[in-house]
Structures are given as structure tokens and as C-alpha cells.
């Protein structure tokens, strides 16, 4: 797939939507204890997909907006990495 087959606008819209879903999942994860499993699953996957799509096409298309989307998507991704670390290592040790 080349950067000419898909417009940067559509890729940016998809990446921003994934980042938005991940941010909503962060709020649900922190606010509603009964939704933690579903929010965590949606949040991790949408964050991974959004950051990888934005990063890959930022390299391929050399678009500044995609570079910014890739950088912004690192924030929810870092939160989910911290959550997984906390669940796997800290809670497993106690």
C-alpha cells in the first residue's frame, strides 16, 4: 500500500477516532468499576491501532498532522501500558 492510495485526511480521521475512543475508555475505566474489563479492552486496542496507523502513515506520507496524531496517541498508550504493568506486576505481587 502506498501513501497515494489513501488520502491523509481519511487516515488522520481514523487515527483521531481511535485516539478519541481510547480517551473515552480511559474515562470509563477510571469512573465505572463495572466497565473496567470492556473499557480496558477497547482502550488498549484502539490506542495501539491508532498510534500504529498514525505512526506508520506519518513515516510514509510525511504529513505533519499525522506526526502530531502519532505523538498525541502516545499519551493514552502510555496510560494503558501503566495499567497493564500495575495489574500484572504490582497486583500479582500482593
Considering the chains and any ligands shown, give keywords for the structure.
single chain; 94 residues; 84% helix
**N-to-C span:** 47 Å
Strand content: under 5%
User: Topology as H/E string?
Assistant: HHHH
Q: Helical proportion?
A: over 70%
In terms of per-residue confidence, which ranges show pLDDT below 50 for 5 or more consecutive residues? none
**Any idea how many domains?**
1
Care to count the β-strands? 0
Q: So how many helices? A: 4
Report the average pLDDT across residues. Answer: 84
The radius of gyration computed from the alpha-carbon positions, rounded to a whole number of angstroms, is 15 Å
Overall spatial form: elongated
Structural class: mainly alpha
Largest sheet: none
Précis, in short:
With 94 residues, this protein is mainly alpha-helical. The termini are far apart.
Compile the SSE list and pairings:
Layout: H1 8-31, H2 36-61, H3 64-72, H4 74-93
3D structure, described in words:
- This protein has helices at 8-31, 36-61, 64-72, 74-93.
- The protein has one domain (8-93).
- It has four helices and no strands.
